């Protein structure tokens, strides 16, 4: 699928001239790293009962959920960033991206070199104690069977990702809303914009006068509000965009 040059040039021009561009990223930015889009046609929730990742279910059956979690998520720990993640890191380094707000838990933005990353749904980096709040590297507790226990208090540990029915980390949500409101260019990348609060962030940005750019392989719920819609895969579009932006700066 070819992306018209004038569209890429237009978006690059916006980003190059922006005071604060913020990128919101979803599953579509990580599929090229081999991470399945949970809700997509090949998504995890087509084969696995998502109710098992409801927080109430976890509280009742932590051993079962941990075993399932290991099976599904351990392979993701080996994933590496793709050109889309690197493109955003380059833009930040060049002073043309304020922050990445992500719905992903894979940590690939940080591994690509992005510094300011707001994780709306937690991350696969840590496990937290459901009793005392202690935090441990997930890699240290992911082996074995059943629910691992807190070395400090014996409480059940939980992967530090947001389960269904759980509130989002409040600090992250507040930071994301603030970023959306201060941005003057808002890029929504690889997200269908159907899930709260991802779908409210572009609206907030737009209401404060930001330009909205949607980069996604499929249609999204907010295409009609966008100043630019780039219909393409993140790992194809973002490197082209970053190159154009960096060229205008040099
Ligand atoms: Zn504890």
Write out key terms for the chains shown.
250 residues; elongated; 10 helices; six-stranded parallel β-sheet; 17% strand; binds zinc ion; alpha/beta; Rossmann fold; 2 domains; three-stranded antiparallel β-sheet; SIR2/SIRT2 'Small Domain'
CATH architecture verdict of the largest domain: 3-Layer(aba) Sandwich
Segments where pLDDT lies below 50 for 5+ residues?
Answer: none
Please describe the biggest sheet, giving its number of strands, its sense, and whether it closes into a barrel. 6 strands, parallel
CATH superfamily of the largest domain: TPP-binding domain
Please bin the fraction of helical residues.
25-40%
Report the order of strands and helices: HEHHHHEHEEEHEHEHEEH
* Lateral strand order in the biggest sheet: 3-2-1-7-8-9
| Amount of beta strand | 15-25%
CATH uppermost class of the largest domain:
Alpha Beta
Number of domains: 2
Which molecules other than protein and nucleic acid are bound?
zinc ion
Q: Supply Rg.
A: 19 Å
């Amino acid at each position: 699928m070819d992306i018209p040059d004038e569209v890429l040039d237009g978006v690059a021009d916006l980003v190059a001239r922006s005071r604060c561009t913020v990128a919101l990223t979803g599953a579509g930015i990580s599929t090229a790293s081999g991470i399945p889009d949970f809700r997509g046609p090949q998504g995890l929730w087509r084969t696995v009962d998502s109710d098992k990742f409801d927080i109430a279910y976890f509280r009742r059956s932590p051993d079962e959920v941990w075993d399932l979690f290991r099976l599904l998520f351990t392979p993701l720990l080996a994933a590496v960033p793709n050109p889309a993640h690197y493109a955003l890191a380059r833009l930040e380094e060049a002073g043309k991206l304020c922050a990445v707000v992500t719905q992903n838990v894979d940590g690939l933005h940080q591994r690509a070199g992005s510094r300011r990353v707001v994780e709306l749904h937690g991350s696969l980096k840590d496990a937290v104690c459901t009793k005392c709040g202690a935090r441990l590297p997930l890699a240290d507790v992911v082996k074995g069977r059943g629910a691992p226990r807190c070395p400090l208090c014996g409480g059940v540990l939980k992967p530090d990702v947001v389960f269904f029915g759980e509130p989002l980390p409040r600090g992250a949500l507040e930071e994301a809303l603030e970023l959306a409101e201060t941005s003057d260019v808002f890029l929504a990348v690889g997200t269908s914009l159907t899930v709260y609060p991802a779908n409210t962030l572009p609206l907030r940005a737009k209401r404060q006068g930001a330009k909205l750019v949607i980069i996604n392989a499929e249609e999204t719920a907010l295409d009609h509000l966008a100043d630019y819609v780039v219909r393409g895969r993140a790992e194809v579009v973002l490197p082209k965009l970053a190159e154009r932006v960096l060229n205008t700066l040099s």
